[in-house]
Design a protein that fits this description.
This protein is of the alpha/beta class. The protein has a single domain, classed as Spore Coat Polysaccharide Biosynthesis Protein SpsA, Chain A, CATH 3.90.550.10. 36% of the residues lie in helices and 23% in strands. Strand 2 and strand 3 form a beta hairpin. Helix 3 runs antiparallel to helix 4 and helix 8 packs across helix 9.
């Protein structure tokens, strides 16, 4: 049996250059997805899985993140005076979600370096890593299942998604062996952003990880890889080939709903998909969408 997991790490130091000029003065994690910033969906996912101790690894110009998850007493007082309990509850929700801590990454040296910056907070226990570009639909509890697999297997667990081979160059790709569970595979190797020809499979790593603390010692000596950055994938590769000392790495194949907010087109799709399913928006949005699509040629 593994150690119960209580901590989540959310790397949030990226510059968001794909969304310039919107992200010139605003963190990309604060871009709204319908009426909540993308980062709030991620924190809500962690909390729903039982992880209420959250560390965000941030960078310069990210103060808006801390402000969002802090109280805004003037706004709350104004809403109370107006008797607007609905909006007041929404404002307070982000303040009360979790016990949130912050650490600066400093030099932007890659995802592996961002995870390494969490070492002092995490300590010597397993922990989850959630990337802010991926929103997992709350109806498909991926992280909960990953935590269960970590406890069951005592290994590090990464989320995998089957993608079209033409898209695998955008992800880390996994070489795998089957297990007795069709949704779980043992990872024997990992390659960061390979060409379609060099990819060991079409199973791509997406932004959810449950890691054993041995990852920190490995990251300490991991040399910069692709993009001259310290790649988390490279450290996971070392864990995958040394299961006797690290517990190895398993992949959970995700077959649910995922929204990518790290790309402009996918970000727009995510807003539409989530809004259509909302009780307060879907009924009016669906017929408008049908009318709009009918005007396209």
């Amino acid at each position: 049996m593994g150690t119960p997991i209580t901590k989540a790490v959310i790397p949030a130091a990226g510059l968001g250059t794909r969304f310039l000029p919107a992200t010139k003065a605003m963190p990309k994690e604060m871009l709204p997805v319908v009426d909540k910033p993308a980062i709030q969906y991620v924190v809500e996912e962690a909390v729903a899985a039982g992880l209420s101790d959250v560390l965000m690894v941030t960078g310069r110009n990210k103060n808006a993140l801390e402000n969002h998850f802090d109280r805004m007493t003037e706004l709350e007082a104004m809403l109370e005076r107006k008797g607007d309990q609905t909006r007041l509850a929404k404002v307070r929700e982000s303040n009360e979600l979790a016990d949130i801590h912050y650490v600066r990454q400093g030099d932007p040296r890659g995802l592996g370096h961002a995870v390494l910056r969490s070492r002092m907070h995490v300590g010597n226990e397993p922990f989850a890593v959630l990337l802010g570009d991926d929103i997992i639909d709350s109806r498909d509890p991926l992280l909960t299942r990953m935590l269960e697999e970590q406890i069951k297997r005592g290994a590090s667990i990464v989320a995998l998604l089957e993608v079209d081979p033409s898209q695998i160059h955008m992800y880390g790709a996994a070489a795998v062996e089957a297990t007795d569970d069709p949704d779980v595979v043992r990872i024997t190797g990992l390659v960061e952003k390979p060409s379609a020809e060099d990819a060991p499979s079409n199973l791509a790593i997406i932004g959810r990880y449950v890691l054993r603390p041995e990852i920190f010692d490995i990251l300490e000596h991991t040399a910069p890889g692709k993009g001259n950055e310290i790649q988390l994938t490279d450290a996971l590769q070392e864990m995958a080939v040394t299961p006797e000392s690290t517990g190895g790495v398993y992949g959970l194949i995700f077959r649910g709903r995922r929204y990518d907010t790290g790309d402009r087109l996918d970000y727009i799709k995510a807003i539409v998909q989530l809004a259509v399913d909302r009780e307060d928006l879907g009924a009016d949005l669906k017929p408008w969408l049908r009318e709009f699509v009918a005007t396209l040629h």
